[in-house]
Amino acid sequence: MSDEATDPISVKHYKCENCGADLTYAPGTANLKCDYCGTEMVITDDSAGGRVEETDFLNYLSENNIDDEQKTVIHTVKCNSCGALTTLAVHVTSGDCAFCSTPLVVENSQTCTVIKPRYLLPFKIIQKDALSAYKQWIKKLWFAPNKIKKYGSTADKLSGVYIPYWTYDAQTGTDYRGERGTNHTETYTVTVNGKRETRTRTVVHWRPVSGYVEKFFDDVLVLASTSLPNKYTEKLEPWDLENLVQFNEQYLSGFRSECYQINLRNGFETAKSVMDNAIRVLVRQNIGGDHQRIHSLLTSHSDIKFKHILLPIWISAYRFNNNVYRFMINGRTGEVQGERPWSWVKITLASLSAVALAGIIYYYWRMYS
Ligand SMILES: [Zn+2]
Ligand SMILES: [Zn+2]
Fold first, then answer.
1. How far, in Å, is the centroid of ligand 2 from the Cα of 94?
2. d(C-alpha 230, C-alpha 221), whole Å
3. Element (H, E) at 293
4. What is the whole-number distance in angstroms between the Cα of residue 248 and the centre of ligand 1?
5. Where does the chain have alpha helices with state H?
């Protein structure tokens, strides 16, 4: 069933029972499909709807990094330009990096041992729909260079990539110290032009406070990739994590997947700062009053659990004037986000014609008024 040995950088192959061609995952279904004869095969071991299990974080870190059952060896190719570690789709032996569009050198393939993803969300948006969303987005770009607009018509520039994420759960308890500010109205008198006047003003009285708050966090999502800009991937949220299915290589067939670059421990540091923001909101509520100051927070995290998951994103990367611009679509919802270049030529022309138009209007207004 698998001929990884002859094609070390791609994922496992699944053959069509009818014609022997490679089967690829058909987005939005629970099937693998043959691109040649159309034969479909139901994905096995699909535990969709089953209970999602999480792994204890501290055990995992102390167990001298992970037991073998939770590890997997994957074959990836490293991009010389941006450093992304990705697999290629079945039978693809060359191609551009999905994240920066630099041609990949297949000789740079390497194996790495990583924590096995436990769950994933399969692609739901098919490439055709992703491509038309891309074209729509490009069409709406005012002042974009024409080159970019042409670029959007090529389907092969859009890759479906499973992006690595961590999710963390934790129970937190926080001791805090701060101050509660209360507004007080004070009256005071001033002398204006020899007359005494009474005025009021609001002053804040501060009082030191301390306390303790608890909060449980469920599924704090952390991007484990360094290949996509956080500010755009955050906008692709929310993800329907309630529909996670057990990891199964068959869902990767026909798609690329990226290997995590932010490890379990560092991912938790990011999760902690996400939790910290929510804890600060809670502490302010707890302090009460009209104003709050937070001087110190001491948070303990317990019962920490994690999952390694893959989420589906359609990506197009294009180079323009030595910069990389990326376009992304949430492979579940179709949410579109992207970076865009501006054409200064077009902007200049547009503002010049606006000035010219104003000049013409002024000219006629002077003539006829
Ligand atoms: Zn077939
Ligand atoms: Zn790259």
1. 13
2. 12
3. strand 291-320
4. 21
5. 57-62, 127-139, 146-151, 230-233, 264-287, 344-368
What spacing in Å lies between the alpha carbon of 101 and ligand 2's midpoint?
6
pLDDT: is 316 or 113 the higher one? 316
CA–centroid distance, residue 32 to ligand 1 (Å): 11
Asked if residue 6 has pLDDT above 50, the reply is no
d(CA 321, CA 306): 41
User: Looking at the predicted structure, is the pLDDT value of residue 9 above 50?
Assistant: no
Cα 15 to ligand 1 centre (Å): 8
Q: What is the pTM of this model?
A: 0.79
Output the CA 268–ligand 1 centroid distance in Å: 44
Distance CA 68, CA 116 (A): 10
Q: Report residue 29: phi and psi, to 5°.
A: -125, 180
Quick one: which ligand is closest to 98's CA?
2
Which has the minimum average pLDDT: 114-128, 145-159, 160-174, 271-285? 145-159
Q: Report how far Cα 233 is from the mean position of its chain's Cα atoms.
A: 3
User: What are 66-118's pLDDT values in tens digits?
Assistant: 666 677 777 888 888 888 888 876 566 678 888 888 888 877 777 777 888 98
Burial 256-276 (b: 16+ CB within 10 A, else e): bbbbbebebeebbebbbeebe
Instruction: Name the residue with tokens 């004037």.
Output: 321
CA of 360 to the centre of ligand 2 (A): 50
Residue in the block written with tokens 């759960």: 169
Q: What is the pLDDT of residues 175-230, one digit of tens each?
A: 999 999 999 999 998 988 889 989 999 999 999 999 999 999 999 999 999 988 88
Cα of 38 vs centre of ligand 1, distance in Å, is 6
CB 315 within 8 A of CB 158: yes
* Residue 99 Cα to ligand 2 middle (Å): 5
